Amino acid sequence: MIHAVTLSFDRPMNEILIDLWREIDTLVEGQPLINTNVRPHITLGLADGLDVEGFLPHWQSLASETIPFACSLSHIGCFTTGEQVVWLGPTVTGRLLFLHARIDALLGEHAKNLDEHFRPDLWVPHVTMAIGITATQALRVVERLQGLKLPLTGEITEINLVECEPPREKHRLPLGG
User: Fold this and answer.
1) Which of 117, 118, 149, 174 has the least C-beta neighbours within 10 A?
2) Which residues pair with 162 in a beta bridge?
3) Taken in order 10, 142, 89, 4, is the CA torsion positive or negative?
4) Do residues 47 and 111 touch, judged by C-beta distance below 8 A?
């Protein structure tokens, strides 16, 4: 089974992003994000064959020692290989990189396989706004997102362990809790 470790936002930022998901779902016919069992998030790592019982105590300890931190979604991006993905990207900070590196190390200790796209030298932190769309639809989504007054600012307040197929948050912890 594939698991993801994700970061979630404070309530005001979460509501802004969910409203954008709803609006984008009316613009394009891709994979709807609003009806999934996950909230807007930044994925820190993706792993197959995770020893959840071995991983959880370390993950819980990391969550308790990490205080919530500011996050600024400052730019729009696209992945254009394979299925089209449009996203909002955070301004990368030392705290975000440090937390990502810690999660990567924990997943490396407790999982059989790590998705290379989420490893430290390849990771592109982002919040997916549309996925599984055509190039023409991606342009419409980008055009809509260009109308935002960036940056969108909020806080990263939670860390989650998500089962990916089907997606659902299995464990959720507040940072600094």
Assistant:
1) 149
2) 4, 169
3) positive
4) yes
| Residue 142: C-alpha distances to residues 27, 39, 85 (Å) | 11, 21, 10
Looking at residue 118, the DSSP 8-state letter turns out to be G
Give CA–CA dist 71/69, Å, rounded. 7
Rounded Cα distance, 32 and 130, in Å: 8
- What is the C-alpha end-to-end distance of the chain, expressed in Å? 28
Fold of 2-174: Cyclic Phosphodiesterase; Chain: A, (3.90.1140)
How much is the average pLDDT of 35-64? Answer: 94
> Would the pTM of this model clear 0.90, i.e. be above it?
yes
Top pLDDT among 32 and 76 is at 76
Give the torsion sign (CA, 164, 165, 167, 172). Answer: negative
Q: What is the largest CA-CA distance in the chain?
A: 45
- Reported residue count of the chain is 177
Q: Rounded to an integer, what distance in angstroms lies between the CA atom of residue 177 and that of residue 162? A: 19
Helix (H) or strand (E) holding 20, with range, is helix 11-27
Cα–Cα distances in angstroms (integers) from residue 4 to residues 49, 114, 167, in the given order = 11, 10, 9
**Nearest-angstrom CA–CA distance, 177 and 154:** 18
